[in-house]
Amino acid sequence: xxxxxxxxxxxxxxxxxxxxxxxxxxxxxxxxxxxxxxxxxxxxxxxxxxxxxxxxxxxxxxxxxxxxxxxxxxxxxxxxxxxxxxxxxxxxxxxxxxxxxxxxxxxxxxxxxxxxxxxxxxxxxxxxxxxxxxxxxxxxxxxxxxxxxxxxxxxxxxxxxxxxxxxxxxxxxxxxxxxxxxxxxxxxxxxxxxxxxxxxxxxxxxxxxxxxxxxxxxxxxxxxxxxxxxxxxxxxxxxxxxxxxxxxxxxxxxxxxxxxxxxxxxxxxxxxxxxxxxxxxxxxxxxxxxxxxxxxxxxxxxxxxxxxxxxxxxxxxxxxxxxxxxxxxxxxxxxxxxxxxxxxxxxxxxxxxxxxxxxxxxxxxxxxxxxxxxxxxxxxxxxxxxxxxxxxxxxxxxxxxxxxxxxxxxxx
Length: 412
Fold this sequence. Notes:
Blueprint: H1 4-7, E1 8-15, E2 19-20, H2 28-31, E3 34-36, E4 39-46, E5 54-59, E6 67-76, E7 90-91, E8 100-102, E9 107-109, E10 122-129, E11 133-135, E12 137-139, E13 144-149, E14 162-163, E15 165-168, E16 171-174, E17 176-177, E18 179-187, E19 191-197, H3 205-215, E20 221-227, H4 249-258, E21 263-269, H5 272-276, H6 292-308, E22 312-316, H7 339-352, E23 361-363, E24 369-370, E25 373-377, H8 390-398
Parallel strand pairs: 19-20, 19-21, 21-22, 22-23
Antiparallel strand pairs: 1-18, 2-12, 3-11, 4-10, 4-13, 5-9, 5-18, 6-7, 6-8, 6-10, 12-17, 13-14, 15-16, 24-25
Helix pairs in contact: 3-8, 4-6
């Protein structure tokens, strides 16, 4: 039998960064997690690379109890995120078994499933959780999930499914239980680019950028996501929803970026929340303002970790935020922009372009700024002064220089 590794290489074609779903700081939910018993979760995602086989990673890294997967299937998705093409349905196995017990604090990668897929295609994963489970590890961006009682892993359509989505001021949160990565066995020479950041890139940017590259004849690049809304570079989230804001970027970088299959480059757009959150009324007494030295040390740490693994790294310009008020839960303005609060952003953008910065390059995003007010985004590009409209996301994808996506000369 031909060795699959001689015909191609495993490359991440989709990912989402896991966060801890235990919202309560004092109750049962914090000690255990969201109760999941005899429920199927179906998640539809768009792949950014194609291949002959697929494999899945399911994660229980934040769990305090084992997670029991009784059955799992994968198929090409139908137009509706609840449906699949039955002719493409494949059973997913783990070490040759159709079930797996994922220990607390661990992740599990499946065996390869022989399902040919193409870049831009929708892949649907259905997982049946039997017995007593406490779901704590979830993603919040990058797919559409539905839940239905019973074992629905082989059903063509879910008819009683409940959408797993939460809408907030900063946009929609797509709850994705346990699934954190999908790899494809791609053609030799295919490589992955990971977008690492916060809510300014926790959107459709990976799919938009990958589609743009394919349209321009660059078909050997997968673009995946490691962005968390509210995430910061040098410190963990704070406040009542702290765990949903993710751990500090410097802490999660190795797991969320460098752990992805086939990664050889990363685009970083992270740091706005480090600068903004300490000055928010809702976070007074919880955070101290960051310094230039703290931020540059954080960026250096990312570059050092990337380069130690042979991964190239680019820092993106920190975009303007004038007009952002961070109106949380309708409680009124949480912050007001001022030149004094914005000074560190400009200082860091200048450092990104200096010889002292250890990154492989800098990606300027000046065209996103309003020509009549460079401290603010183009009004059509933003929903609230910070987060991007679909037009803003397309504009951001268009600003990524194509020449940086050429793979390294030395193949892994």
